């Protein structure tokens, strides 16, 4: 292998490793979205951990739409108000997983 070819391979490998390290985990994105929706940091972290493996990527994206709620409601949002908004998404599985996580994290 020539020195130039080796450098190209090394640069490509380094770039792919850097890109994989720079990606944010779905759990982290979900936690951030729950925080942006107005949930407390403790509740958002606990719920994200319980929810991330039980929802599809499409369902997680639908939950992201709730992050805009905080802009209209300054301050922390209560869990029951958040669940009311989740129910408005009209996806029974999202509501079930979210409500179970909220109940489990409340204690």
UniProtKB/TrEMBL annotation:
Keywords: Signal
Superkingdom of the source species: Bacteria
Signal sequence bounds: 1-21
Name of this chain's protein: Lipoprotein
């Amino acid at each position: 292998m020539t020195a130039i070819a080796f450098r190209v391979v090394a640069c490509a490998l380094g770039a792919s490793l850097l890109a994989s390290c720079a990606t944010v985990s779905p759990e982290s994105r979900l936690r951030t979205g729950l925080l942006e929706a107005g949930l407390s940091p403790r509740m958002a972290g606990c719920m994200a951990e319980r929810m991330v493996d039980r929802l599809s990527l499409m369902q997680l994206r639908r939950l992201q739409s709730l992050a805009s709620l905080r802009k209209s409601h300054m301050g922390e949002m209560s869990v029951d108000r958040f669940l009311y908004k989740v129910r408005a998404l009209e996806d029974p599985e999202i509501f079930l997983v979210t409500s179970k996580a909220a109940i489990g994290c409340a204690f």
